[in-house]
Design goal:
single chain, 5 helices, about 35% helix
Length: about 130
């Protein structure tokens, strides 16, 4: 199995940005944790992080053209704003799971809206970085 693990804006600041919400684990720690888990399960993972919407769309499309089996995406703030990411996920028709470290439903009102959820087979939220492994 081959998966794209896609992280959106500000995920590169894990451990620095609001550790009371997102924890103290760094983005590098998260990547190492995902790789170790994937190796243990025999899953080939491609990890991508970008603060740029177009780069995320490009990564989603590349997942299709490269024959990947699915996507795990933490779209960050683009969760609440990006029809482009929604359309990209719909366009490639790969099973996609939306993951959030915090639970957006318990935060500000605008965070309760996810444009991507309509194209995802599941959403994991509020489980910290463990949610990526689930």
């Amino acid at each position: 199995m081959k998966l794209l693990i896609l992280n959106g804006p500000n995920l590169n600041l894990l451990g620095i940005r609001e550790p009371n919400i997102y924890g103290k684990e760094t983005y590098t720690d998260l990547c190492e944790r995902i790789r170790a888990y994937a190796d243990q399960k025999g899953i080939d993972v491609r990890l991508v992080q970008s603060n740029h919407e177009g780069a995320l769309v490009d990564a989603i499309q590349a997942a299709y053209f490269d024959g990947l089996d699915g996507i795990v995406i933490n779209p960050g703030a683009y969760t609440h704003t990006s029809i482009a990411l929604l359309d990209a996920i719909k366009g490639v028709n790969l099973p996609t799971v939306e993951v959030h470290i915090s639970d957006p439903d318990t935060r500000e009102e605008f965070r309760k809206i996810s444009y991507l959820r309509a194209a995802c087979i599941a959403t994991v939220k509020g489980r910290g970085t463990q949610g990526y492994l689930e």
